[in-house]
Each structure stands twice: as C-alpha cells, then as structure tokens.
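Re: How this chain folds, sequence and tokenised backbone to follow
How to read it: Take the token row as a discrete description of the fold.
Start of record: The labelled sequence and token lines come straight after this line.
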Amino acid sequence: MPEENFCMLQGFEWNVPADQKHYLRLKNALQNLKDTGIDNIWLPPACKGAGGTQANGYDVYDLYDLGEFDQKGGKPTKWGSKEDLVALSEKAKEMGISLYFDAVLNHKAGADEKEMCQVQEVDTSDRTKDCGEPREMEAWLGFNFPGRDNKYSSQKYHWEHFSGTDYDAGNDKTGIYRILGDNKYWSSSVGNESGNADFLMFANVDYSHPEVQQDVINWGSWVVNELHLKGFRFDACQHFSERFTNNFVASLEKEFGKKALFLVGEFWSGDVDEMLKYLDQMHHNFSLYDSPMVYRFSEISRTEKADLRKVFDRTLVQARPESAVTVIMNHDTQPGQTVETPIEGFFKPLAYSLILLRAQGYPSIFYGDLYSMKGDNPEPPACGGKLPDIVLARKLYAYGSQEDYWDDPNCIGFVRRATDEHPDGLACIMSNAEAGEIKMAVGTMHSGEIWTDVLGWHTDEVHIDEDGYGIFPCAGVSVSIWVNKNAPGRERFGKFDDDIYSNA
C-alpha cells in the first residue's frame, strides 16, 4: 500500500432507510470521514433495481439508470437521485476522496416483457446435471428500458443475451433453467460452486454474447467518466465469466491507464487456494476481499481462549497481502443476510486493530460498525464507538517496519517502527483472556518518551527506556494502542460524529 495508509469505507449497510437521502448524508459526512483517515468510499449499488426506491440495487435492472429515469416506480434509487450522486462525486473529487462503484454484472431483474425460449431445467444443487428433457418456456427476459428511451445506450436485452433464469412464468414455477441456443452453455471461467457457479439468481447475463460484452464495456467507461470514479467493486465475481472480467479491465486500462482504477472482487469462499487460483488467472492488477479471514475472526471470537497467534492462518492477507482487502463485516455478513459468519462484539476492536494497524493488506471498514445498524437487528456503533480512533491511529502512526511479539496464545502485540515521514510509530497489544503486558521495542529514537493509550481503555503511562523498550499493558479482553503522548495529532482523537442520520 502507498505511504498514505489509505482506508476504505463500505459506505452503506443493508438497512439504511429507504428515504432517498443516503447520498446527501454521505456528502455531508465527507469532511468528518476525511479527518478520521478515510480516503476511499465503496458506494452502494447505484443502478436502478427491480424494486425501485426500496431496492438495495443487487436486483439490478438497468445499469445506465443511476436514479435519473422514471422506471420501476420512480426516478431515484433507494439511495437518492442521480443529481445527488453527482453532487457527492463532485465534492468527493474536490476533497481528494475516491469513490468505488459496486458493479452488479452477473444478472438482471425486473424484465419489461415475457419471451419464449428453449430451456433445459438443471439440478439446483449441481448446475451441470440436467433434469428432464429440453422444452419451450415463457420467461421474463425482455428488457427494453422504456423510461430511458435509448439515452446512453440503445442496447436492449432479450432471451439470447442470457444463459439462464430462475422462473417459469408460464407455469409459475421456480427452478434453474439453462437457456438453449447456438454456442450457449454455462461459462467455463467461473467458480465450481454447485458444479458450475455461473448461475446465481434472476436472469443470468451471458457474457459469451458479443452485444452483451460491448454494452457492459461501454457502460464501464461511461460510469467512470460520469462519476469521476477511482475504482470498482465487482459483486459475486466468481459467478460470471472471468474471461469477460479480464476484457472489461483491459478496456478500462486502455482508456484510463493501468493504475488509474482500484479493482476488487467479492469472491466469497473459505478456501484461500481457490481465491489464489482466480487471482492467477486475472492478468491485471486485481484484489479480492479476504473472506477466509472473516471466517477466522468468527471462529476465534466464538472460541474461549482461542489462540490469537493463528488468526492469519490460511488467509489471503497471509498468502498474498498485495491482493487482499481485509474486512471484518460487510452487508452480506450482517444479521439476516446471506453469509453466516458472526463475529462477537467484544472481538471487533481486536479484529479492526489487526487489519488497520498492521502493514499487510488494504483494510475496509463497515458503515454499520462505524455509524450503527438499523432494521430488525439494530446495533450501535462497534468497538464502543472507538472504531474512528483506530482508523485515525492507522492514518497517523501505523507506518514503518513491523515486529511481532506473539509468544502468548491469548495476549499478543506488535510495533510499527515509524518512518522519516511519519516518525511517531505505535505499539499495539491485545488480549482475548486475562489482562497482560508485553515488553516491546519501539526504537531508541523514542528513548525517554511517555506513551499512552489513544483509545483511553488503559490509563497507565509507559516510559520508554534508553534501549527503546517499554512494558505495554492491556486490560482483559481488550486492546490498547500506545503512542507518544506528545505525538502530533493526539488532539484529534475522540472527535468523530457518528450521528449521520441527523446530517441530511
């Protein structure tokens, strides 16, 4: 990662109110986020979904409708109007905050018309196994986008542009139906979940079709220019053609430059080898969210006195740190969503310290942990409201060489030795059991300094001796981040405004 110590915010959670004010709230919060050390925001799916103003956007209907056209019950999306989105992007650009677009490219939903097509029903647990004989079926596969009236793109989508669907409209029956036609089959460059991972939901886009390829590649260029984007998050990337993803990225690189955009895929798996294979087949700069690490955090947080020294075993950040976006939670893992990886609340400060303060990986923090979660399972901000201070500690002090002190399975620590540009450094110690302390070397350049915990969870002072060592304590089941009490920036802690819902 660059010397700047960037941090990504997933800029939404599943149960954000559907009041079309989310972009306004984010725009008003930009300065607060920048002051805390957040430089990049992963936007919610901004394209019109089949559910209109109530949809989170993963039921994508029209890639080119960013809340501009009267479709699916109104002009705005759940998050707001295109005008509000553009205003957010303009202010973010002015402030040096990058926006990443959540690209939902696997499928389409909410078709305008039914069409007849030939299909083969397949086994829902193994997409490579046929059930019965091929037959004709009526399905919702006609996308004409009448509200947009050919603006930005004249491409319409019909049965031949899809490889599968999940609803037999003639018989009112759900299932998985592979669409038949010349040169049609599931993509071979996808994951192997359920035999072949190409089909996920709704009307499955067929990226072997040249009209589909060109339309989506054109959209990529258009949306980058429209919103001053600096990156993409690819939803469910193992479920659609990796060959197409390579071509999509190559087109972006040709127009905008090889390092102009940050690209990360959601490849949900607990198997790091499967993820490494995917990355090896991507011929461009590309990252994946470290889902194996989420599973590790979940397991350790729910195991009494688990061995903290094993927290990075079989994770992407251990195997290929330059390609790992480290994450604690996201919209998929919050209560009631698709991935069951609960992380106990007591462990979140430890987990966030591990991804934010160490040298490896690019950390992503979750909107729901920063601001709170709404819905049927509401939660206050995580980490006792201290997550912004952990982010700020990263921005100000987490630089330089790293040394681990991992002798005790339940009390571990590490130091960052600082750099010429960021001379302060830090020491982090955490416990998932009893209180403890570790003697750690922060460097002779800090001899005589007094260090205190920026989180305020431990009130002692640590004196750095002439050899650059200090004895750093930690309360039981807690974490402390120790920094010179006179380090520049100490006055900035504890200033974050987490009441985002009063800001629009």
About this structure: The chain has a mean pLDDT of 95. The CA atoms of residues 275 and 292 lie 9 Å apart. The chain has ten helices and 25 strands.
